[in-house]
Task: inverse folding
């Protein structure tokens, strides 16, 4: 019996994910308008459930699913390759599994107390956003986070150089979009929150930019992976069920 096959086209997957992201941003935006213009904080729990910056929310679950989908694509490509790039595909798959788990659990927050001293040291020397970040110890997770991102980028540079130009550019662009949101706007949000607090429309705007860019970068990376797989292996599909083996004539004729 033949199983059903769901074909995954890169453009279709990217379009659906982008539509979901746009819907989540729209609901989040509408909720924040109600919150700040009409003073309704609770909104029957919808404000918190669809707040882009909340770790226990529908948008956060969507982000975790996106990262897990990237991990699946990386493992699939790595399993099909038999060249020196294979360890990189599989290694990045492990990284994205870890990122997906961290998105839901928030392990990165546990590192903040160990790196808060960096903010204390840099504030009198550098100033700038650190004048606000010094008041937000929880944002110190960015120190090991940035170091980890730099380490992964350096380790993967030989791998990226061997990729076809189009996909190398797509991978780099998706990473840049993700990091502008996850690091750039996170720093701005921490600075603003440290000086004026998080309950302000401007902080929500910064947080919205951060979370939107972060998810947009992940969607672009997923599209890049599926597009690369299509170019290398042809149409991609997920088989549901299995093919029944034909009967063995020798077994049927045996007494």
Result:
């Amino acid at each position: 019996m033949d199983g059903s096959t769901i074909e995954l086209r890169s453009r279709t997957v990217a379009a659906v994910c982008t539509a979901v992201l746009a819907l989540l941003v729209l609901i989040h935006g509408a909720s924040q308008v109600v919150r700040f213009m009409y003073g309704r904080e609770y909104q029957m729990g919808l404000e918190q459930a669809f707040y882009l910056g909340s770790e226990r929310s529908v948008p956060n679950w969507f982000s975790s699913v996106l990262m897990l989908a990237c991990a699946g694509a990386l493992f699939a490509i790595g399993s099909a390759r038999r060249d020196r790039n294979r360890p990189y595909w599989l290694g990045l798959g492990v990284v994205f599994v870890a990122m997906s788990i961290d998105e839901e659990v928030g392990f990165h927050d546990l590192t903040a107390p160990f790196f808060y001293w960096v903010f204390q040291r840099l504030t009198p020397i550098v100033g700038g956003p650190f004048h606000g970040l010094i008041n937000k110890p929880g944002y110190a997770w960015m120190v090991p986070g940035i170091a980890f991102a730099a380490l992964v980028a350096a380790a993967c540079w030989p791998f990226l150089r061997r990729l076809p130009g189009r996909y190398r550019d797509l991978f780099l662009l998706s990473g840049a979009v993700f990091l502008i949101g996850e690091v750039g706007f996170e720093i701005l949000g921490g600075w603003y929150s440290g000086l004026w607090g998080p309950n302000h429309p401007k902080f929500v705007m910064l947080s919205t930019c951060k979370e939107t860019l972060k998810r947009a970068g992940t969607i672009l990376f997923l599209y890049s992976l599926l597009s690369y797989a299509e170019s290398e292996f042809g149409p991609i599909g997920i088989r549901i069920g299995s093919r029944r083996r034909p009967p063995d004539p020798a077994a049927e004729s045996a007494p």
Observations:
- The longest strand covers residues 4-8.
- The radius of gyration is 22 Å.
